[in-house]
């Protein structure tokens, strides 16, 4: 059985090696390209959201490349994600593919997940299942931490491209860490690699808070690599959504990290009193939090027709008016053109820059 | 003493709970003001108030709020999260009171009690009533009694009864009540079909019909209205007297993009004529007319 | 067309008033086209119709018109002006003519000025259809507009596209975005041929994604409507789905032919006569202010008299007796 799971940011780096070493024949989908997107778009319902279409493209390409089993998390709403697997399986069967599909209906329930791992791997007992699962979580956290370093160092680097190389090297190190002890050691090395980057200490970059629907926000292919584009414009990204936070909210593995959904709900009070699914609460709460922390502006990222983020987007535009706080909403789907994105990002950065100059000259 | 007036926007869940809400609020001693039927003007106001790509029904809702807000003391916009244990309302309905607050300034106070069976279980109505009572400074017990007494009343379909006939072409209509029964948004499908000599049929699926439909598809649909639409579709596809089915939906509706796929692929096993009419604020009446005419032609096999 | 005077000609008239062009066709009982006219509506459908009628009279002299069928988005207007025996939507009309031409047709792709349609036929009966909703990115107006912007005539578009070796990829849900992306591609230095071919690909892809999603496009496929004139689009479609597209000889007037075919059994026609072309007809419109719907009501006037009204959703004006 060759197992594949659709891409989501760097998640595949966290699990592939570990599961392979435990007897799972893992096959991450080929790197997404325009072809992936075209395949996904052609076979999806027209107004399905972008993550659905990219996932489907990943699945088709994996099946073409020889995978014969797909693992797709499920759920029970209210966002559409919980129903993805069902519709995708239906489409793939109609296209004539033969494969085994498992949709874990309770992705929040730890024991179910451990059982799934036991089912597909050579792991025989539950404690080993937990050990492997938490190692994957920790690796994900390490990857996210490296990316946060990248966000910080990229706008400040003196030698162009040094930070990109540091990130590549870090990912390689984390990928090679297949035990808790090794991961612990590599985390130190990663920190050192970034600290060695020559940076301009006097330069104070603009800081933009990046929030939104988690898939499109953390998947560079889906958002046309906005974070890299901003980094090259010498802007520091303060990301408000992380896959490891999402996982930590459910499986508690970072003892010093608060539950981000609950934290956001505290901030959002008065603007959004009950979560509308997805990352709506994080988007609203963290917009207010970033405003208080003096982040220069918010880039809000969402797929076209995304239900939870449409609610959040309406509300953060009100916050933007109430607090005179710049918010740029970007909606992504297969029709978005690169030129359009670049133009809007540049204009937004210019606007923030002008505001900062004005603010400084007033003080 | 002047009556205290509570406004109910004629949109979204109005088309499901209007009668229950009206009698409930009247019994508490308030005057109920309902906004008029949707018009081009109301929709235009709603579009002006909304940001980004909110869907047509939500934009319409905002238009109704606009038409009510200056003439009432309270707006009744309850937050319906879940009305059954196994399904949610759609995310935009979950956030509706917050969306309304975000889109307006100078609003009257919103009565936004939460109805959430998934969380409050057996205490849902008590909890709902407690919040209403708190906002209106009333006795929670009295509110609860009144709510329970009136909760049986649903939305009385203002259209005449549409039932099956043997003589004409019977067209089953499925779709969310707030599109189908809003004459403006729903493009008056009932009348259009009657004028073409077809007989429009609408059903509210029963518990059994819902349960049966859910066994045919691979996974329980977890949106209340999406589930009902799917179940009506299933009932219509099975019924020999129904000659064709029209599914009216808002173009960018999230749940409908998925249930539409299920209906087309899983339920239409007998290959009955089936058409999706998607509407948005640009949809022209001529375009809808053309499609419905062609659909009726197709069922009647009017080909020389 | 040469004069066929002498024995008086009998025939059936089909009128298709579209948003961009107005088509009038005269057929005999077997469905052969005796005469046809294809002209731009130019926003004046009445004028277009009248001038079609007067050239019919000039070309053929007296003609015995036994029945009239009207179709197209202006079918109501055509009915009010000429008097039609059947007023049919254009989806049915297109299906009727395609089936008449090729009885075993299974798929009809129709792309006109502002509408595009997909009709599926099984055993001579329409079994499914779809029509573009609001977006004009997959229609003739879009192509024409872009051809004008690129400085080539609409007629040359096809030959440019066929010369391209690697079509540019043009993104965009709607005309505005497609246009800005096209400009961007030009600025990046793609040559004209590749951009035109990219445009054809974008149109075909948009059509397939919007209308044909999940539908079985099986052969034989007939491609009709004004856009079928463009070999670049035909090639783009064939590249995309790997099936042959058959273009009928009368591709731009198939809707009108269908409307005419539908009235071949008319007993007493309601046709008002070709003299309609000499009447002084004009339209006027007003916004009814009786309710907030503010429907635009359209009136057709013959000198002083209002001969028809429509456009109101409640029907109060349309049914008013003068």
SSE arrangement:
The complex is a heterotrimer of chains A (363), B (304) and C (322).
Chain A: E1 3-4, H1 11-21, H2 34-43, H3 50-64, E2 69-73, H4 84-94, E3 100-104, H5 110-120, H6 126-153, H7 162-176, H8 180-195, E4 206-212, H9 214-218, H10 226-232, E5 235-239, H11 243-251, H12 260-268, H13 280-292, E6 297-303, H14 307-323, E7 327-332, H15 338-362
Parallel strand pairs in A: 1-2, 2-3, 4-5, 4-6, 6-7
Chain B: E1 5-8, H1 14-27, E2 31-34, H2 40-49, H3 56-68, E3 74-76, E4 79-82, H4 91-94, H5 96-103, E5 109-111, E6 114-116, H6 117-120, H7 124-136, H8 140-150, E7 169-175, H9 177-180, H10 189-195, E8 198-201, H11 207-216, H12 224-238, E9 244-250, H13 254-267, E10 274-279, H14 285-300
Parallel strand pairs in B: 1-2, 1-3, 3-5, 4-6, 7-8, 7-9, 9-10
Chain C: E1 9-17, E2 21-27, E3 33-40, H1 45-60, E4 63-71, H2 75-82, E5 86-87, H3 90-101, E6 107-111, E7 116-122, E8 125-131, H4 140-150, H5 157-162, H6 175-188, H7 192-210, E9 221-224, H8 231-241, E10 245-246, H9 254-261, E11 281-287, E12 296-302, E13 305-310
Parallel strand pairs in C: 1-4, 4-5, 6-9, 9-10
Antiparallel strand pairs in C: 1-2, 2-3, 6-7, 7-8, 11-12, 12-13
Helix pairs in contact in C: 3-9, 7-8
Describe what you observe in this structure:
The complex is a heterotrimer of chains A (363), B (304) and C (322). The longest helix of chain A has 28 residues, at 126-153. In chain A, the strands form two sheets. A four-stranded parallel sheet of chain A has the order 5-4-6-7, with helices on both faces. Chain A is built from 15 helices and seven strands. Chain A is globular and about 65 Å long. Helix content of chain A is 56%, strand content 10%. Chain A folds into three domains: 3-120, 3-Layer(aba) Sandwich (Rossmann fold), CATH 3.40.50; 125-203; 205-363, Rossmann fold (3-Layer(aba) Sandwich). Chain B folds into two domains: 5-150, 3-Layer(aba) Sandwich (Rossmann fold); 169-300, Rossmann fold (3-Layer(aba) Sandwich), CATH 3.40.50. Chain B is built from 14 helices and ten strands. In chain B, the strands form three sheets. Chain B has a four-stranded parallel sheet, covered by helices on one side. In chain B, strands 8-7-9-10 form a four-stranded parallel sheet, sandwiched between helices. In chain C, a hairpin with a 2-residue loop joins β7 and β8 (125-131). In chain C, the strands form three sheets. In chain C, strands 3-2-1-4-5 form a five-stranded mixed sheet. Chain C has a five-stranded mixed sheet with strand order 8-7-6-9-10. With 322 residues, chain C is α/β, with parallel strands linked by helices. Chain C is built from nine helices and 13 strands. Chain C folds into three domains: 9-93 and 257-277, ATPase, nucleotide binding domain (Nucleotidyltransferase, domain 5, 2-Layer Sandwich), CATH 3.30.420.40; 103-247, Nucleotidyltransferase, domain 5; 280-322, no CATH class. The longest helix of chain C is centred in the middle third of the chain and has 19 residues, at 192-210. Chains in contact: A-B, A-C, B-C. Chain B binds chain C through residues 36, 39-42, 184, 188, 251, 261, 264-265, 271, 273-275, 278, 280, 282-287, 289-291, 293-295, 297-298, 301-304, and chain C through 73, 88-92, 95-96, 99-100, 115, 124-129, 131, 133-134, 214, 261-262, 264, 291-294, 313.
